[in-house]
Amino acid sequence: MALQVAEAPSAGGDSDKQEFKPDLERIEIELLLEGIFRHYGFDFRAYAYASIRRRLWKRIEEEGLGSISALQERVLHEPEMMEKLLLDLSINVTAMFRDPGFYVTFREQVVPLLRTYPFIRLWHAGCSTGEEVYSMAILLREEGLYDRSRIYATDINEVVLQRAKAGIFPLDRMQEYTDNYIRAGGKESFSEYYTAKYGGALFDQSLTKNVVFSQHNLVTDRSFSEFNVILCRNVLIYFDKTLQSKVHGLFYDSLVMFGVLVLGSKETLRFMSHEDCYEQIAPPEKIFRKVK
Amino acid sequence: MYSVVAVGTSWGGLSAMRTLLGGLPEDFPIPIVIVQHRGKDSDQMLSRLLQEATALSVCEIEDKDVLEPGRVHVAPADYHVMLEPGFASLTIEEPVRFSRPSIDVMFDSAAATYGEHAVGVVLTGANEDGASGLAHIVGRGGRALIQDPKTAEVAIMPQAAIRAVPSAEVLPLARLAPRLVELTREESKPRRTRSTVV
C-alpha cells in the first residue's frame, strides 16, 4: 500500500498543489510512519493526519526532543519508545452510554428488528476498554434479548482488551454513567450492575457471559463472520477517507442483508462507495440498515 | 491569499458571532470554521441561532466534511475539530484544558495545514483557550485578529490572545467582519480552497 496520509493527490490544478505543498514536517511524519510499519508492523500510514501529527508532537515534547526525525531515531531503535508511542496513537477515550439519545433510538428502532431473529450476532469494532460493550449488554438484557445474543468485541490493542475483559471502570465516573444510563432509557437502577471493588466499579460478570473479546485489526484483518449488527462509533474518525472506505467494505461484507450498521453521531457514509447500500433508519442518529 | 478563517470564542460568543457573521456578505470567498465552547450535550441550537443571523450557510461539522467557500462550519459539542487540506476531521481525544472542542487544537491544525493562508480570530470568552493556537497561526505566517476586549462581553480570552500575539490586529467587534472582507480581497485574484474529496 502506498503512503495514504490525508494529503492524497488532488484533482485540483497546480496552484492548489503549490498551496498545500507538503512541508518538511509532513515528509518526516510520512517517513516515521513508514518506518514504524516496516520495522514493527503497526500501520498508521492511513490515519487522519492532523490528529497523528498532534499526538506525535505531544510525545516529542514529553521526551524533550526537537523534531519528528529525532523521535524517529528513538522509536526505531528503542522498542520501549514504540510502546509509549503506541499508547499515544491509540485513542481510548470512551464512556458508558455515551450519546444517550443513540441508545434510546436503538431500543425503539433496532430492538424490534432484532426480536425477529432467533439468534443475534453483534460486532463491536474498536471496543477500546469496553464501556460501550457493557452498555449494549445491559440494554440487550433489559430488552430480554441478551440470552440469544453474542457480542464480538474487538480492538487492535491487547492492553485495552484486557481491561475490557476485567470490567472494572473508574468509580469517579459512575455518577456521569448513571446520568447517561437514565437518559438512555435504562429500566433498572444502574448501581445494580456493579459493585465497588478493587478501587473501582466491578461490573456484573454475567454481562460478559455472551461476549467474546478478541484482537482484530480493522486496517489489515479480514471479515471473520456475518453479523446482524455492527457497532463502530468514533473509531473511523481516526482514519483518512481512503481507509474509511476500505473498512466500510469490510463492514458491508460482514453484515447480513438488512443488518444494522451503527456509527458515531458525527460520522457519515457520504462519499463512501457503499453509501447507496444502506438506508438511515432514524436520522439524526447514525443507524443504517443494509438494503442491498 | 487566505484560504480559511478560524474563529474561537467562549462566554458571550453567540452574540459576538451573530454580529461577526451578520456582517459578512453572501459571497464571502473562503470557509469559516468556528469553535465555541459549550456543554457536551448541547444540540444543533447553536447552528440554528447563527443561521438566523447570517446570509452564509451554517452547518455543524461531521467527520471529513469538505470546507466550502462562504460556508460557516461549526464544531460539534464534545469533539475536537482539526483542519486538513480542504476538509475537517473530528476526534474525541482528551479535552485540552477542560475543553472539547478546544480552540487551541483547531488553531494549531489550521496553522500546520494552512500556514500563511490561515486567519485566526479570537472573540469574547472567560478563559485563555485560543491564545497559544493563535500564536502558532502567526508563527506559521498566518494572520491574527482579536476582538477589542473593551467590546467583549468577557475580556479574558481576547486579553490572553493579545498577550500571546502582541502583533495581532485588535478591532472592535463591529469592525471584524469588514476587516475579514478586506483581507480576503487583498489579492485581486480570488483563490479557492481545495475542496477535493480525498
Computed structural class of chain B: alpha/beta
Please write the CATH class name of chain B.
Answer: Alpha Beta
Number of strands of chain A: 10
Structural class based on helices, strands and sheet pairing of chain A: alpha/beta
Beginning-to-end CA distance, first to last residue of chain B: 23 Å
Largest sheet of chain A: 7 strands, mixed
Oligomer: heterodimer
Our count of domains of chain A comes out at 2
Strand order of the largest sheet of chain B: 3-5-2-1-8-9-10
The largest contact between protein chains, plus residue counts on each side, is: A-B, 36 and 31 residues
Strand tally of chain B: 10
How many domains in all of chain B?
A: 1
CATH fold naming of the largest domain in chain A = Rossmann fold
Shape, per Cα inertia axes of chain A = globular
Please state the average pLDDT score of chain B: 93
Order of helices and strands of chain B: EHEHEEEEEHEHEHEH
The appropriate CATH architecture of the largest domain in chain A is 3-Layer(aba) Sandwich
Helix content of chain A: 40-55%
CATH topology of chain B: Rossmann fold
Biggest sheet of chain B: strands, sense, closure? 7 strands, parallel
In terms of topology, how is this protein built?
The complex is a heterodimer of chains A (292) and B (198).
Chain A: H1 14-19, H2 24-40, H3 49-62, H4 68-77, H5 79-89, H6 100-114, E1 120-125, H7 131-142, E2 149-155, H8 158-166, E3 168-169, H9 174-183, E4 194-197, E5 200-203, E6 211-215, E7 227-232, H10 241-254, E8 255-263, E9 278-280, E10 287-290
Parallel strand pairs in A: 1-2, 1-7, 2-6, 7-8
Antiparallel strand pairs in A: 3-5, 4-5, 8-10, 9-10
Helix pairs in contact in A: 2-4, 3-5, 4-5
Chain B: E1 4-9, H1 13-22, E2 32-36, H2 45-52, E3 57-60, E4 65-66, E5 71-74, E6 80-84, E7 87-91, H3 103-114, E8 118-122, H4 131-139, E9 143-147, H5 156-164, E10 169-171, H6 173-185
Parallel strand pairs in B: 1-2, 1-8, 2-5, 3-5, 8-9, 9-10
Antiparallel strand pairs in B: 4-7, 6-7
